[in-house]
Amino acid sequence: MQDMSATMVEDLATLAPEAVLAAGGVIGLLVGAFLPRHRQWMVRLGCAVAAGAALILTLIAWGRAPTGAFEGSYAVDSATNATRIVVTASILLVLALAVSETRSHSRESEFCVLVVLGGLGAVLLGGATDLLMIVAAYLLASVPLYALTGFGKDSTGTEAAMKYYLLGALFGAIMLVGVTILFGVGGATGYVALAAAVPTAPTVAVAVGAVALITGLLFKAGAVPAHFWIPDVTQGARPSVAAFVTTVPKVGAVVAILRLSVDVLDHATLNWPSIIAVIAAATMTLGNLGAFFQANTRRLLGYSTISQVGYLFIGVAAAPTELARPATLFYLAAYALSNLGAFAVICALPNLVTVSDFRGLVRRHPALVASLLVSLLGLVGTPPTAVFVGKLTIFAAGFDAGLGWLVVLAAVNTVASLFYYLRWIVPALAGESDPVTVTVRPAATVAYLAAIATLVVGVASGAILALLD
Questions:
Q1: Comparing C-alpha atoms, which of 317, 324, 468 is closest to residue 396?
Q2: Tens digits of per-residue pLDDT, 4-53?
Q3: Ranges of H-type helices in 222-296
Q4: 426-461, pLDDT tens digit by residue?
Q5: In sequence order, which residues have a C-beta less than 8 Å from that of residue 9 and are 6 or more positions away?
Q6: How many structural domains is the chain composed of?
Q7: Which residue range forms the structural domain that includes residue 410?
Q8: Is residue 4 part of a domain?
Q9: Mean pLDDT over residues 115-139, rounded?
Q10: Residue 5: inside a domain, yes or no?
Q11: Helix/strand/coil (H/E/C) assignment for every residue in 351-378
Q12: Would you say 120 and 128 are in contact if contact means Cβ atoms under 8 Å apart?
């Protein structure tokens, strides 16, 4: 009994960042129920402190040897730590982004709690090494986001939330079917036991179970064929919610697919990298095609996030190579900074909806336009931004894995994506601006910080990649 208690305490200590996030969410929910509207900022502060504490605890524990918790159902390694850092930093930025939208709102505390709990679900997805843990993390990373999408209680947000929820329920059910099949053929839910069982299991059953399981994770990542909800959610939800939904769940889902591929599916008798490569090709291409003629800036960024997942999946398809894992983790961090930076500009200028609305903005807000320029060119992969290094390393991993055709396709898509980003950038640098443009300062500050960070991370990429290896 004492040994069991000691093990439980040790597991909780290992999961200190996750425990801090969970405590911050629960305490914020309880405290917010008793605070008057004008004092609910205290819940926002508490959630920010919890995210900051989780970030610091992760940095302190970074150099420790990889370990597990709760009988191997959760792994704490460089992939989990990278997920923790990206997610907690994103939570801090989104809480700042949403200040103007939710300050003194009757449900301000609920908004902040939902952001923290949704982020916690993404972290758990990244560290899960058990099928049941994957299901629990999927739910925690989904339900809060459904509520956030409909937070504004307007017609567009409600419609987006309904679509998001229905598709999430559908793909979640498919994922459960996959878990059931894999458990049936493997006799276990832990990755270690499954890795030992799948080589001798019926190939068709393993393939069906794996595809069904990964379908749910593709929904969280926003990849083809589970990508239909992203444009509607990014356009219909509040801008800060759109920024969160298109960033944080993707981080956990991509790491979860990477871990599942390396730990389990690469041991099966099926060509799993080719399946991921086809998904990557379809995702980056269809995402770019959808973005080409979008006039609404949020909808354009929605399709852009779909294409970015396609590039990330090159690293997943190349998972057996040495460079794939650090390249994918670095790309996730770089993408999060660039994507949040672009959405921060939208949040800072809430009355500008279409790309033409940004015409001549450089004359009135040169710093914001500079931040937008860095973020959008960063998403393209322009040096010296962080995404440039991420794409370079992930393309190298693809070549090492013999996926030259996929890398060439990704390069063509990268060049093509410049077209729709320039449709936004060029008007902002030319013509006369609207004299009624209003800037939201907290969001503008986030835009500046994200733009600076993406340049700093790009310059310091060598050291960061060494830490991720």
A1: 324
A2: 555 656 666 778 899 999 999 999 988 887 877 777 888 889 999 999 99
A3: 229-236, 239-245, 248-263, 272-291
A4: 888 886 666 556 566 888 899 999 999 999 999 998
A5: none
A6: 1
A7: 272-469
A8: no
A9: 94
A10: no
A11: CCCEHHHHCCHHHHCHHHHHHHHHHHHH
A12: no
